[in-house]
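Dear colleague,

As promised, here are the two records you asked about, laid out in our usual form so they can be pasted straight into your sheet.

NAME FIELD: protein one
SEQUENCE, THEN STRUCTURE:
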Amino acid sequence: MVLEDGGVPRLGQVLSLELDQLSTELMLPAQTLGAQETRTQVQIRYGRGEGIILEGDSATFHDALVRVATGPEVKAWLERGTRHYAQLQLGELALAAGVPGLADAGGFNRHTFLCGQSGSGKTYSLGVILERLLMETDLRIVVLDPNSDFVRLGEVRGGADPTLAERYQDAARGVAVYSTDAPGQRRLRLHATDIDPVTQAAALRLDPIADREEYAALAEFLVSEKQLRLEALSESSNPEARRLGLRVSNLGVDRFAVWAGAEPGSVLDAVHDPGARCVIIDIGSLPTPEEQSLVAGAVLGSLWRRRHERKPVLIVIDEAHNVCPAEPPNQLVAVATEHAIRIAAEGRKFGLYLLVSTQRPQKIAQNVLSQADNLVLMRLNSLADAAFTEAAFSFVPPSLIERSVTFHQGEALIAGKISPQPALLRFGARITEEGGADVPATWAAIR
């Protein structure tokens, strides 16, 4: 809004606005001498709310004329702002047509929470954010991709803006996708020696107290053999080791598709390879939830263990309710959740930044969500989710979060360090192809 008082304009932002009314008595003067005055009740409706002065004299004033700021006025204010970091053009402001919707790239050195219900455009919009980060910054990115949505992040789509497509080519060459069915070095694989003993015990559903004999046998075996081999366990003279071998066989852990076998290298090498600008870990290509949780825990754990290298990396966890849920359903998920919580609490000072994305904020581990300083909020139809988000992100005006129920597909509220002034924006077009897709509704065709 622009406020004009005595010819002096101020640019302001409305943060909340609601309709209110009051009733008052109005006395009308008599029209003729000796006639009685007339009294009437008048209903007055008015808008009230909160706002801030963005630019201009911030001194108090009695009243001012208010009008909607024009697109050029908002754009000029944005251009006059101090820019210490790259600005990511994610789209345009929803309430100011033609004005770019910008996010401060430097703000991604804080944890970010992206939330939106199914159909809100969450995955598409996350792709836009990743593309702009790859194109405008040098920040390395590791993506845990549970639905294979970002496996084509290195492929420029047909019809993309030619200028952006040309600029993106360099970034695209740095995108490495690791998938179960990929050939050669890009096959998603792990060596047992890559995995810490706690995670291995979780994969075998071993409790250090209830299963103390087998747990001790596992620890002893890993010290001597470094990795679990079913043959060595079965042939051991230690009865607990043989029992451990039966557990491995019965759970099918030895048949996981993720094991590297005799192949050299693993996905963890790429995670720490400075030459790999963006590593997409297609955990959605793994055949079982246990393997997906195993890889997620191994990646997060490895990043945490090597935190003292202080190499900045953005860790993107899509559909994070599966990786770090509020209530982990088993030990493997609990291990991954603990790693995520540890990174959320202490990782930032080591250059480990989280971007977690989900449909339901209440399903995320509270100690992960509470550490997020940035919010990207898309449509939420659940009032309970909106209220939960309000409580978690107290730095965002509640009325703006409440507006999320009215958002159209691709519209979002962004706030935090990535957008010091909360902004409503409409995400722009992707440069790259989308990986996942809905099943076509051909079954609904007219017969």
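NAME FIELD: protein two
SEQUENCE, THEN STRUCTURE:
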Amino acid sequence: MRTSIFNSAIPRHIQANFRAIDKPKVDLVEESLRDNYFARFPAEYLSTDWGKKDLKDHLFRRLDTDRKTIIPWLDKTRPLRGASILEVGCGTGSSTVALAEQGAEVTAIDIDEGSLVVAGERCRAYGLDVSFTHANATEVNELFAGRHFDFIIFYAALEHMTIPERMSAMRATWKMLSAGDLWCVIETPNRLWYHDTHTSFLPFHMWLPDELAFEYSRFSPRDNYRELYRKYDDESKLHFLRRGRGVSFHEFELTMKPAAELKIRSSLNVTNLQRRLRRLMKWRFSNEHRYSSLLRKIAPELHKGFLQSFLYLIIEKD
């Protein structure tokens, strides 16, 4: 079933592909989220204000955001219909639905089995055929050797990898692409930014070495985070890193080529500011603009997309 209400800000050819599901199917997705994703959280989590918001985000908001912002941005750079896409880190499948309903051929992987179960059930609820694989991103070059992808997309994924995993996955996926294909990073916090609004909600937290950031996490205002990390051993360190750490242009230079030589087709943050004059004027008087301008002065050779709070980049292989 397709939605019938059109948003003038979203191209009509994209809205025409939006699918809706009835309440019984929504209930099935919610049950799967509770059983396969949120079961790892403390029993009382979904009763808290934050937990209720988190559940609603997984059920509705993420897909809504993808449809309104991410999909039009990707599709404008290259049409999604008929495109072959490797989605690295599909999570519980909101972004997967948004891509697949546009007629893309989506192959999705995730390291978390519970999330994959939800993603599969969500796509079936929407009547979408997606190929899912349980795998670490470091395995993609072996799993999909010889496969061609028009897009390789890391959606809110790079920040949840260890540095060795991230470097391996970025290097391998870049090599998998042919000239003209697109490598995309979406919604990944920038390590250079002064405030971590993704994980800890603390200033300067992404600048700290991992062990110091682990210790300092006890000052975070975030529930189900600040109380978790006390003993710095291999297991707790990995759990901490999986919650999310920043990424910056440095990984791109080490795994692809010098950042100034990368063919950046688009940055969502920069594009949005350029399109919305009032927002741009407001931005000019904000601390974010002052800080971004400072970064620009320090590293003028970098694309502006590397100097925003989050990385949203489409890079063309040449």
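A couple of things worth noting about protein two: Residues 1-6 have pLDDT under 50 and may be disordered. The chain is about 45% helix and 15% strand.

Best,
R.
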